[in-house]
Every structure is written in C-alpha cells, then in structure tokens.
Design a protein that fits this description.
Layout (H helix, E strand, L loop, with lengths): L1 H40 L17 E3 L4 E3 L9 H4 L2
Length: 83
C-alpha cells in the first residue's frame, strides 16, 4: 500500500513539473516573439527610397538627397550632372 502511495506522489510531482515547464517554455516564446516584433518594428531614421518609386513632386537635388523646386543655387540637379 505504501509503495502505491509513493508511486502516486511521484506521478503528481512529474505532472507538476511538466505543467511548470510548459508554462516556462510558453513565457520564453512569448518574450522572444515580443523582442522580434520590437526589433522588426524599429524604423531607421534615414529612408532609402528609390527615385523611380517616389510619389514626391519636384526636381531631385543630389546634394540634399530630397526633391525640391529646383531653384537651390548650391544644389546639384540632373542637368548639372550631364555636363
């Protein structure tokens, strides 16, 4: 009778360890998923957009790397580069 009680106790301890282990593994995966989302969601400060895909208006200033009206005296535009 005593050996059957001991076997039941071991079984309960084993089940408890499995549950605690499962919860711990679940928490680890949740943390990893959160960190992955944080790192993937971080945007860089400089946006590297191709000129062809741009929806901006104006002439591209190669010095400032932005589109403007094309009247910047210190700017470098497409026609300046062809010379």
């Amino acid at each position: 009778m005593l050996s059957m009680m001991k076997g039941g106790r071991i079984l309960r301890v084993r089940q408890l360890l499995l549950r605690v282990g499962g919860i711990a593994i679940g928490l680890i995966f949740a943390l990893l998923d959160t960190f992955r989302d944080l790192f993937a969601g971080a945007e860089s400060t400089k946006q590297d957009r191709p000129i062809q895909d741009s929806d901006l208006v104006g002439d591209y200033n190669f010095q400032t790397q932005q589109f403007d009206s094309g009247t910047d005296p210190a700017g470098w535009y497409g026609e300046d580069l062809e010379e």
